[in-house]
Amino acid sequence: MARSQTTRKPTRIQREKTREILEAALDVFSDNGFRGSTIDMIAERAGVSKPNILYYFDNKEAIHKTLLAALLKTWLAPLYALDESGDPIEEICEYVAQKLKMAQEFPRESKLFANEILQGAPHVLPELQGELKELTQQKADVVSNWIKAGKIAQVDPRHLFFSIWATTQHYADFDIQVRAVSGDGKDPFETAGPFLDNMYRALLTPAT
Q1: In 3D, which of 135, 119, 155, 22 has the Cα closest to residue 81?
Q2: Which of 19, 102, 112, 146 is the most exposed, having the fewest neighbouring CB atoms within 10 Å of its CB?
Q3: Percent of the chain having pLDDT more than 90?
Q4: For the chain, give me the number of helices (H) and strands (E)?
Q5: Does an H or E element contain 98, and which?
Q6: What SS3 state is found at 2?
Q7: How far is the C-alpha of 26 from the C-alpha of 68, rounded, in Å?
């Protein structure tokens, strides 16, 4: 864990230094994955010494876990915001829009998470099996209630969420592929939003 969390409240300078280290680590981990990254690489990117890094964090794993914890908190917020009392299609399409916006604004964090999952989720599996699973089940129940009420088409609630995660995060995790195949020099996010919105509206609108 971060050493600053084990003592009294950190000073402004300590908070700034911690942010600098985490920012550098995010670059290193998203580029190289956890296994391919070292404290030396993080220290070089942050422009500080290795002992200075270890003053703030116990080890590489502690830095990685800190980044993942912050990421999960940010990524779960839009799912928490899915409102059962709102218009079902608007609520789901807004969730899609928020997830795509996060992929655009936090590409390094998205790649950090993808690398963690590809390695078997050694640092976030308890959270995946705990908070994420419980929250997804709660919102799947909301979707099921909307289906029973005839407000949206018949879909598998869990696969709906899986597809949203896949279609939105793809633009961050496979950015090079997307831009290479597009080949027009335009930002893929400009057209991804309208496309995904139309796709999910078509999927969710009940047949007349």
Answers
A1: 135
A2: 19
A3: 89
A4: 11, 0
A5: helix 88-105
A6: strand
A7: 10
